[in-house]
Design goal:
By secondary structure, the protein is an alpha/beta fold. It contains 11 helices and 12 strands. It has 2 domains: 185 residues, 3-Layer(aba) Sandwich (Isopropylmalate Dehydrogenase), CATH 3.40.718.10; 125 residues, Isopropylmalate Dehydrogenase (3-Layer(aba) Sandwich), CATH 3.40.718. Bound molecules: 1,4-dihydronicotinamide adenine dinucleotide (NAI) and magnesium ion. The site of 1,4-dihydronicotinamide adenine dinucleotide has 21 residues, from helix 1.
Length: 328
């Protein structure tokens, strides 16, 4: 039996999660869901955004489905804490144009893999006499791990090329190491093509000729920025899923937040959450259910029936989910 931690969170996080669980119940899965709290409502109740109990549950299950939380400045980030505690070192974000979406191109299908644990987000920031400074950490270990992951991902998903993105011309030591390590690891994967770009050029190519990309692998800050650029390319936040992968288990979440402007209206687009569940099932080896669910979502989008307002429709979250069930 598969054990899945479910963290609904706040706002539309709860709404898209309820819709997704409804759909998952119509797949023949041998699964147990364990519900856990995190986020701002959790803070109001328990005085913490991420209770120890939630971390324990997530550590001891095969995967975590995460809705979205409201982050109040000054509070501990639930999602960053979970990524750290579960050592979820790889953030995987597909950039795929789907029918019926507001994608800027109709033929995109690439994946951004972002190193999730170090780089400029290592958390080493301090005030100095002159102002403030942050340290950019690139370790050999984390770098090898993320490149190995990227090439194995390419292999397993029939991808043909991995592109490393860096700024080694300016960051000669940190990104020099990053780039050199990339080509060392690439040597072990002779069947997968490889190349590297400077991040500024890559940002331009992502809007001028994004079709050249297949699998992108990059460091934490560059990955953060490029993956939002990617989301923008294919129709925005309601459409984009993500996976955070570690050696033990993974956490799967839509890229969007709790959307306070539409929360409570029941009109959030469930696509990003549903496609995050697709990534989870695929990661758990449930390939058949994963494909079945993905096809059902794509069908609903293609038919443009029962879409939420952000996609130009008039339907509620739950109505779109029910239409997905009909298409399973
Ligand atoms: P947001 O992603 O919640 O919303 C941005 C815009 O996208 C809003 O106009 C919203 O209505 C729309 N949107 C988001 N999800 C949608 C969906 N499923 N369907 C249709 N439209 C959707 O980002 P925002 O407003 O910057 O942040 C709101 C709260 O969420 C903040 O407290 C923020 O810290 C938190 N947040 C949490 C994340 C997480 O839990 N991983 C990620 C990003 C933000
Ligand atoms: Mg971001």
């Amino acid at each position: 039996m598969i054990k899945i931690t479910v963290i609904k969170g706040d706002g539309v996080g709860k709404e898209v999660m309820d819709a997704t669980l409804l759909v998952l119940n119509h797949l023949n899965l041998d699964v147990e869901y364990i519900f856990a709290s995190a986020g701002n409502e959790c803070f109001q109740k328990y005085g913490t955004t991420i209770p120890e109990e939630t971390i324990d549950i997530a550590k001891n299950t095969d995967a975590t489905l995460f809705g979205a939380v409201t982050t109040v400045p000054g509070q501990k980030s639930a999602i960053i804490t979970l990524r750290k505690e579960l050592d979820l070192f790889a953030n995987v974000r597909p950039v795929k144009s789907l029918p019926g979406s507001n994608s800027l191109f109709n033929n995109l299908d690439f994946v951004i893999i972002r190193e999730n644990t170090e780089g400029l987000y290592a958390g080493l920031e301090e005030y100095t006499k002159e102002g403030a400074q942050a340290t950019r950490v690139i370790t050999k270990k984390a770098t090898e791990r993320i490149f190995k992951f990227a090439f194995e991902y390419a292999q397993e998903n029939s991808r043909k090329k991995v592109t490393a993105i860096h700024k080694a011309n300016v960051l000669k030591k940190t990104d020099g190491l990053f780039k050199d390590t990339f080509y060392q690891i690439a040597g072990s994967f002779p069947k997968i093509n490889n190349e590297d770009f400077y991040v500024d050029a890559a940002a331009m190519y992502m809007v001028t000729k994004p079709q050249i990309f297949d699998v992108i692998v990059t460091s934490n800050l560059f990955g953060d920025i490029l993956s939002d650029e990617g989301a923008g390319l294919v129709g925005g936040l309601g459409m984009t899923p993500s996976a955070n992968i570690g050696h033990q288990n993974g956490l799967f979440e839509p890229v969007h937040g709790s959307a306070p402007d539409i929360a409570g209206k029941g009109i959030a687009n469930p696509t990003a959450m549903l496609l995050s569940a697709v990534m989870m099932l695929d990661n758990l080896g449930e390939k058949e259910s994963s494909l079945k669910l993905e096809n059902a979502v794509f069908n609903v989008l293609k038919k443009s029936k029962c879409l939420t307002p952000d996609l130009g429709g008039k339907s509620k979250t739950i109505e779109m989910a029910k239409e997905v069930i009909k298409n399973l």
